[in-house]
């Protein structure tokens, strides 16, 4: 027999061996806090959706536990000048439909993110002006202006590359059967029940994938989700209720993995959004400072969150290299708070409304704050509002203060600009200070992390310490519980579940 | 009787039309702008909001939105879910059998427990069997579904490991697994209603047992078993059947909570998620289909009435 006959036989044998190996691999079942929205990287919005995408769609870049940008579908990048980024792609990568992942696919995907109607990525890569295909493995991205956060946007959904052939064929229905270049390919979705993915044998990093199938199951009730883990119906769950943590720690069959997240919770003061900003709280920063000084962040976290989360007075989490170290967590000081109220010449108790999304923990957090600020002379009225209504009220300015959170982004710009820049889309309190705007714009264009940190420090000195646009309270931890049979699992601050290198004994 | 049936069928269409107008009107009163939810992080950008509103027709007058929706409905198109872009008709077809199976199982559990318990309770009035049945019924009615569901999950799934704690397997795929996944939620859902059945059957039976024809039957020397099953029960069942059709509808409402606890991808979970996400096409589709089910059930109830009570057939 000659080599001509042997070669195809060898390929068939190798494929069969690969298939047999995949058959022997275990399956993994993951419990999510809610059902993800549409599974199209361009149109998706939810955090849980990003968890599924981590197994489904690889990105040009990823982040590691130190929040450094590391290659994924790209291998290297270099800035030709502050407005020109050249990315070299990984060779031999294929999409789940067998199509090649190349420079043309990158150009297609980025253009789709920029131009598709209803795209949620447009705002993230709005600085992108043009994508040029240099050769099949090289793309050149031209920006409208220098942008420090741009590269980090490519570590999330904006950096996900989809199969142009599949995307063209499916149009707006692409999310019903997404085709990407991640470790698992899409099998099926039963809305509100499960999303099933299957190991992609031709994945570029397939040697590091040790599961045959992954099933994501949305279970909204945290107790029921934990019961599923305890009974062995799931192997890994998102833990959203810190009160579940002591029980998980006691259970010898379960492990807990936590990481300091990128997000935050804090109070938005309505200082310029409509009529409700016109009261003393909205107009006098001394009253807002008194309110801030009355809150004991440590105690609040102990009482409501089992001491798990990290107290804070700024939007940039300690995990970030650009965390402003000099901006210390506000220590409670009731005497100073009372003195500030006297100085402001306001009659106590000062009535303040606080809008809170209607969840048991947030209500409890608001109640704890209610008793804290009462000692300083505030009468806090908690307005528990269903989430969708709260969002609308926030946009319309129908609030005095709003206890609100953000899931966080690897680059600090994603935690800051849109919230306190006067043109920020999520600046619900309509805070505006031209000097802060200038500093934030400057930090966007600045590439040196040390200089950016200094710019943020100055912006926070004005917006937070002086103007009191917001009171940041804590950075939540991402908490994941899983069976002890699961090995090699680690969390990165973005809180996504990455399965590379994870095994089930 | 046929004329009556036609009249009843004729009432269905205006009922559904009035209801659909009501859904649209109520939607306008519901706080929370769908465009703001859909816009997510871009919610402060008026251009993004305008784009979304234009795409979803939210920038048009309500009557125009209603007209477009009704026109599509007449063509069998319920639109698509704004959140996951799946056709609403497809979603409903996917979820309805799940809730119907759950509801049917719960209903059977309720009838099998409630009706015999009511009969025994009436037959042994003011004796230990009556007290026991009353106590159980009261417990069934007053135990919150949510608490009972969690307790059952902890006992049967976590501690004993007998049943899966949540999820759903279609009966066509594996009937054993299907029963295993639905028996706990069906019990939680049916348990409360069994209590209601028991109380009503008991009251109706006590009423019937005091009637002259029962005394006559007993005087004729008929065995007590025959008196109860052939004479008293048949008459006592009429109000129970009415109640059953109403309770069947209530089962759908109860499914909302039960499906949340047991993560069953049914109708209840569909509508709750749709309301929270202001996914209007799903809300509209689900409400219309639910209404259709209610109307049909009440029609079936009336037909059963006639089957049980021949006097009504002549009317």
From TrEMBL, chain A:
Signal sequence range: 1-22
The Solute-binding protein family domain sits at 68-426
InterPro entries for this protein? Peptide/Ni-bd, SBP_5, SBP_5_dom
* Keywords noted in UniProt: Signal
Where it sits in the cell: the answer is: Periplasm
What residue ranges carry the coiled-coil annotation? none
Which family does the record claim for this protein?
Answer: Belongs to the bacterial solute-binding protein 5 family.
- The molecule here is called ABC transporter substrate-binding protein
Automatic annotation (TrEMBL), chain B:
What SUPFAM superfamilies is this protein classified in? MetI-like
Q: Which domain of life is it from?
A: Bacteria
| UniProt keyword Ribonucleoprotein, yes or no | no
* Pfam families in the cross-refs: BPD_transp_1, BPD_transp_1_N
Q: Which PROSITE patterns match?
A: ABC_TM1
Q: Which residues cross the membrane?
A: 12-30, 102-124, 136-158, 178-198, 236-262, 282-305
Q: Where is the ABC transmembrane type-1 domain?
A: 96-305
- What is the protein's major site of localization? membrane
Tell where it localizes: Cell membrane
Topology versus the membrane, per the UniProt entry? Answer: Multi-pass membrane protein
Ordered alphabetically, the record's keywords are: Cell membrane, Membrane, Transmembrane, Transmembrane helix, Transport
The similarity comment for this entry is: Belongs to the binding-protein-dependent transport system permease family.
Name of the protein this chain belongs to: ABC transporter permease
């Amino acid at each position: 027999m000659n080599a001509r006959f042997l070669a195809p036989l060898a390929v068939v044998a190798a494929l069969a061996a690969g298939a047999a190996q995949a058959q022997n691999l275990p399956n993994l079942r993951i419990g999510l806090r809610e059902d993800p929205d549409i599974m199209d990287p361009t149109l998706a919005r939810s955090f849980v959706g990003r968890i599924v995408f981590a197994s489904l769609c690889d990105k040009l870049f990823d982040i590691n536990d130190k929040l450094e940008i590391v290659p994924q579908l790209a291998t290297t990048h270099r800035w030709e000048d502050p407005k020109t980024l050249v990315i070299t792609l990984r060779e031999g990568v294929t999409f789940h439909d067998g199509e090649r992942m190349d420079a043309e696919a990158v150009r297609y995907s980025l253009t789709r993110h920029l131009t598709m109607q209803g795209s949620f990525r447009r705002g993230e890569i709005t600085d992108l002006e043009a994508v040029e295909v240099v050769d099949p493995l090289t793309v050149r991205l031209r920006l409208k202006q220098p942008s420090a956060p741009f590269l980090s946007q490519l570590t999330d959904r904006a950096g996900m590359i989809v199969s142009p052939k599949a995307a063209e064929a499916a149009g707006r229905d692409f999310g019903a059967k997404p085709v990407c270049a991640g470790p698992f390919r899409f099998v099926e979705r039963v809305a509100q029940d499960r999303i099933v993915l299957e190991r992609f044998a031709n994945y570029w990093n397939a040697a590091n994938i040790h599961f045959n199938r992954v099933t994501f199951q949305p279970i909204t009730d945290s107790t029921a989700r934990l019961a599923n883990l305890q009974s062995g119906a799931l192997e890994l769950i998102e833990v959203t209720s810190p009160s579940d943590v002591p029980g998980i720690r006691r259970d010898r069959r379960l492990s807990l993995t936590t990481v300091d997240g990128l997000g935050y919770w804090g109070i938005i003061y309505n200082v310029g959004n409509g009529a409700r900003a016109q009261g003393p709280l909205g107009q006098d920063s001394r009253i807002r400072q008194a309110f801030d000084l009355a809150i004991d962040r440590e105690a609040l976290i102990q009482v409501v969150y089992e001491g798990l989360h990290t107290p804070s007075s700024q939007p940039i989490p300690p995990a970030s290299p650009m965390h402003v170290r000099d901006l210390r967590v506000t220590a409670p000081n009731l005497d100073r708070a009372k003195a500030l109220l006297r100085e402001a010449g306001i009659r106590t108790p000062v009535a303040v409304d606080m809008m809170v999304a209607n969840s048991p923990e947030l209500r409890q957090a608001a109640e704890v704050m209610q008793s804290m600020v009462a000692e300083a002379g505030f009468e806090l009225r908690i307005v528990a509002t269903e989430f969708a209504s709260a969002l609308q009220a926030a946009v319309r300015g129908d609030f005095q203060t709003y206890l609100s959170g953000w899931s966080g982004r690897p680059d600090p710009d994603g935690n800051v600009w849109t919230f306190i820049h006067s043109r920020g889309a999520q600046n619900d309190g309509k805070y505006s200070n031209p000097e802060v705007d200038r500093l934030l714009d400057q930090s966007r264009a600045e590439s040196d992390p040390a200089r950016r940190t200094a710019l943020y420090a100055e912006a926070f000195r004005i917006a937070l310490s002086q103007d009191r646009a917001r009171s940041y309270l804590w950075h939540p931890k991402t908490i994941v519980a899983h069976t002890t049979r699961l090995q090699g699992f680690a969390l990165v601050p973005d809180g996504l579940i990455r399965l590379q290198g994870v095994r089930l004994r | 009787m046929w004329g009556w049936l036609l009249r009843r069928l004729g009432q269905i269409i205006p009922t559904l039309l009035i209801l659909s107008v009501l859904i649209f009107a109520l939607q306008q009163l519901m706080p929370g702008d769908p465009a703001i939810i859909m816009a997510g992080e871009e919610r402060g950008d008026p251009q993004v909001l305008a784009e979304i509103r234009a795409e979803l027709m939210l920038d048009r007058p309500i009557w125009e939105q209603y007209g477009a929706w009704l026109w599509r409905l007449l063509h069998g198109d319920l639109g698509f879910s704004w959140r996951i872009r799946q056709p609403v008709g497809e979603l409903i077809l996917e979820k309805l059998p799940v809730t119907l199976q759950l509801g049917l199982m719960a209903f059977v559990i309720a009838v099998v427990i409630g009706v015999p318990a009511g009969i025994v309770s009436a037959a042994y009035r003011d004796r230990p069997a009556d007290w026991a049945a009353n106590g159980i019924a009261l417990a069934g009615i007053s135990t919150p579904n949510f608490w009972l569901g969690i307790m059952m999950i902890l006992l049967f799934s976590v501690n004993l490991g007998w049943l899966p704690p949540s999820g759903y397997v279609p009966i066509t795929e594996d009937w054993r697994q299907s029963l295993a996944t639905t028996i706990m939620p069906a019990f939680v859902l049916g348990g409360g209603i069994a209590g209601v059945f028991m109380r009503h059957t008991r009251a109706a039976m006590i009423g019937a047992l005091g009637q002259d024809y029962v005394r006559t039957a007993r005087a004729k020397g008929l065995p007590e078993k025959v008196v109860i099953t052939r004479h008293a029960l048949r008459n006592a069942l009429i109000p129970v059947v009415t109640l059953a059709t109403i309770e069947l509808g209530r089962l759908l409402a109860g499914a909302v909570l039960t499906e949340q606890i047991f993560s069953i991808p049914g109708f209840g979970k569909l509508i709750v998620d749709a309301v929270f996400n202001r996914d209007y096409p799903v809300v509209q589709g689900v409400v219309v289909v639910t209404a259709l089910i209610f109307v049909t059930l009440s029609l079936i109830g009336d037909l059963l009435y006639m089957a049980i009570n021949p006097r009504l057939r002549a009317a």
